[in-house]
Amino acid sequence: MKLTEKQKRFVDAYIETGNASEAARRAGYSSKIANRISSENMTKPVIQQAIEARLKEIESKRIANVTEVMEFLTSALRGELTDENIVTEGTGEGCSEARIIETRISSKDRLNAAQQLLKRFPRQMDVAEQEARIKRLASELESLEKANGVESVQIVDDLREDDTDDDDKAE
Fold it and tell me: What is the Cα–Cα distance from 66 to 139, expressed in whole angstroms?
């Protein structure tokens, strides 16, 4: 079922204001019936679906997805991004003039982008670095256990295959 023109305006106004009565007034319904119409509209499945679809459309346009973030970080890493900086220059006789210049992002920002990218690829991390992390975490765990008075528990499987409950029956 298609929405009427007023219902389309209602959906847009509702998304803008979050208030169904106000949305009804903005959509062109009279103030006398706006409350009733707004309640009716909010119970109609076609309007609810239109609101949900419109919110998803807005969300997809405004919120960066994973690909966009990865492309941005890669551009930063490669030094393809520029930054605007305000520079004040003296013009003589105690006067100065401000202007905006474009510069490439700093090497610090490029390194930060590289680190952010590497966080997203943990499998490609150097094996030695992974082993160092594991050792560090193990030592942290051990120090926490000691600090909390917890002794390390080690489970030892000292039963042989021929040990069974028969020994218990013999006693």
Answer: 35
Q: Are 67 and 30 in contact (CB under 8 A)?
A: no
CA distance 84 to 68: 22
Which of 1, 29, 2 lies closest to 13, judged by CA?
A: 29
Task: Report how far residue 155's alpha carbon sits from residue 149's, in angstroms, rounded to the nearest whole number.
Answer: 19
**pLDDT tens, 54-92?**
888 887 777 777 788 889 889 988 889 888 889 888 888
Considering only the C-alpha atoms of the chain, give the largest distance between any 2 of them, rounded to a whole number of Å. 110
Residue 155, class by beta-carbon neighbours within 10 Å (0-12 exposed, 13-18 middle, 19+ buried)? exposed
pTM: 0.41
Place of tokens 């994973």: 66
